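Collaborator request, handled under Task 6.
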Amino acid sequence: MNNNQVNNQQNQSQNQTNISAPTNPSSTQNSLDIAELREGMVVMRDGSFRAVIACKSINFDLMSSREREGVEYSYQSFLNALTFPIQILVRSQRVDIEPYLNKLAEIQVAQDNMLLGDLMEDYINFIDSLSRSANIMDKSFFIVVPYYPSGDLNNLKGSAKGFFGKIFAKPGGQISKIDRNTWDKAREEIKKRVDSITGGLYQMGIKSVQLNTKELGELYYNVYNPDTAVYEPLGDFRDTASLFVRKAEGERPDQGGF
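Structure tokens returned to the collaborator:
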């Protein structure tokens, strides 16, 4: 075998290596539209902002006819007074009752009355059997408040025109850069909109509060990990180094990177 044949074989092996190992493997998080969570706001990849308001529920069925009319009128006035779009989100999540059962078991052990202990044992077995036969769900209510630096109306028109383009577009676009003036203006505008929303909800008897950065992290963790979050909650937000793991350019997925 001469030197030319050896060089050809080496070049072929190098070409095969380059084909099998892409230089920029995609990351799962490239499909997310969220770029960052900061100061109680969600920064999107397109440079827009979101605030999330958690709302308490009210029992509409137990109200009198006059109270119902008052709530409906307040809700109508609330919608008519809006000058920006909002999203009303109702989320159902499976409840893990294991901590509750463990607490009952501890109380049962410390119970001196044998009759009460037997009743508690029957109650614990009943709740455990009920949870296994049917999923116990908890509903949460949120209002998402957006802010687009380019203007809400212009953004809505662009979203309507490019609806199918967004569906079939490749994920992982470039993250828009935000300067200090845009950030300060967005924070001020988001605060005004959140105050307007919470004030309108208060007129209907609905208590509400804006989620902070820690609560936003927990919410999105539960949304993107519905099964894992039941048994492995996020825990203390400060113990988490980063909610979003980004790899360096050209880095293999097994190398990690922030």
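The cover message to the collaborator said: "The longest helix spans residues 180-203. The chain has two domains: 34-94+138-248, 96-135. Please let us know whether this matches your experimental observations."
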